[in-house]
Write a structure and sequence with these properties.
single chain; 251 residues; alpha+beta; Cyclophilin
């Protein structure tokens, strides 16, 4: 069985197991399992088992002119090719609005700090990768995250490529942080998570955005609870969070 992408949380795995939702050995958004305290997060990520575990396509090698390390993977659901490797384009500032069934959530992309990640997110949004998808995981204790970005809706899907981590030095995850769920170092894809409250995670998940509007929507979703399918307070959100589209506003 394919390992889900996840967040490594201090107390639990998210990456929301954010991509299915991950781990030096496991990510907080890694497989199902209770979030681990920060000290234990290295051993087990809150996202482990909750994010796709990308497998590089045969012969795929990151070239010198590909600083972000965008590499195709075997899994290619809704595959639209690879994002541009033109570094000059990566730091273009923008905001993104997730139009969801629970309300709109807008975040400012940290393009200067995480150019490869924000470039990938914009690329996927502009190719409608996130359209008509839903957020498949919510964790409401230990770590506080809403995990989204899997077009298959299983927590094991990805965009058909992976890329390098960035912006991890001193990374923290206060309420409103938007970060990548993963299946280990340099395995970012399409899955991401949003912190509904201040969350303690090891600095293993690339932060690439800050919510500027819609925290009330996130708190409503958090208060709605989960179905506990992974463990207590970790499962599918009881308030359905469908994403009809992601709107990109440049500047």
């Amino acid at each position: 069985m394919r390992r889900r992408q996840t967040l490594t949380i201090v107390t639990m795995s998210l990456v929301l197991g954010l991509a299915g939702v991950m781990s030096a050995s496991a990510s907080p958004l890694a497989r199902a399992g209770k979030p681990q305290p920060a000290a234990a997060a290295v051993a087990k990520s809150p996202f482990a088992g909750h994010v796709a575990d990308p497998v590089a396509a045969p012969g795929a090698v990151a070239a010198a002119d590909n600083p972000c390390g965008y590499i195709p993977t075997v899994q290619r659901f809704r595959f639209h090719g690879l994002p541009s490797s033109k570094v000059a384009m990566h730091k273009q500032p923008f905001s993104a609005t997730l139009v969801t069934t629970q309300g709109r959530i807008t975040f400012k992309a940290l393009a200067a700090d995480a150019p490869c990640t924000t470039n990938s997110f914009r690329f996927l949004a502009q190719h409608q990768y996130y359209d008509d998808t839903h957020c498949h995981r919510l964790v409401t204790s230990g770590i506080f995250v809403l995990q989204c970005g899997d077009a298959t809706g299983t927590g094991s899907g990805g965009a058909g490529y992976e890329f390098k981590d960035e912006n991890l030095a001193g990374a923290t995850y206060p309420a409103g942080t938007v970060a990548m769920a993963n299946a280990g170092p340099d395995t970012n894809g399409s899955q991401f998570f949003i912190c509904t409250k201040d969350t303690t995670l090891s600095p293993a998940y690339t932060p690439f955005g800050r919510v500027t509007a819609g925290m009330d929507v996130l708190l409503k979703i958090d208060a709605g609870g989960t179905d506990d399918q992974n463990s207590v307070d970790d499962g599918y959100p009881l308030l359905y969070v469908g994403i009809s589209t992601v709107k990109i506003q440049l500047g």
